[in-house]
């Protein structure tokens, strides 16, 4: 299962460069994860200051 970003995201951008496959990008109102690219490594969830990222 891919990881997902909830509406707790404050668009700080910390997670984007940490993703090894470039699956995270800035969306319209918050950052988003491309479910098709995510390999569920969990790295992004560990660096998010608001705990907005979790496994779907
Ligand atoms: S779980 Fe890993 S592969 Fe998926 S978006 Fe987060 S850092 Fe990228
Ligand atoms: S680290 Fe968390 S709060 Fe920051 S952009 Fe990523 S999901 Fe949003």
Briefly, what is this?
The chain has one helix spanning 43-47; strands spanning 3-5, 24-26, 31-33, 53-55. It has 1 helix and 4 strands.
Supply database-style keywords.
56 residues, mainly beta, two-stranded antiparallel ribbon, two-stranded antiparallel sheet, binds iron/sulfur cluster
General description of the model:
The protein is mostly beta strands. 21% of the residues are buried. It has a single domain, classed as Alpha-Beta Plaits, CATH 3.30.70.20. The protein contains 1 helix and 4 strands. The model has no long low-confidence stretch (mean pLDDT 97). The protein is 9% helix and 21% strand. It has a two-stranded antiparallel ribbon. It has a two-stranded antiparallel sheet with strand order 2-3. The protein binds iron/sulfur cluster (2 copies). Residues 5, 9-15, 31, 47-48, 50, 52-53 line the site of one iron/sulfur cluster.
Shape estimate: globular
* Name of the top-level CATH class: Alpha Beta
Quote the CATH topology: Alpha-Beta Plaits
Bound molecules: iron/sulfur cluster
- What's the CATH architecture? 2-Layer Sandwich
Please specify the SSE layout and strand pairing.
Elements: E1 3-5, E2 24-26, E3 31-33, H1 43-47, E4 53-55
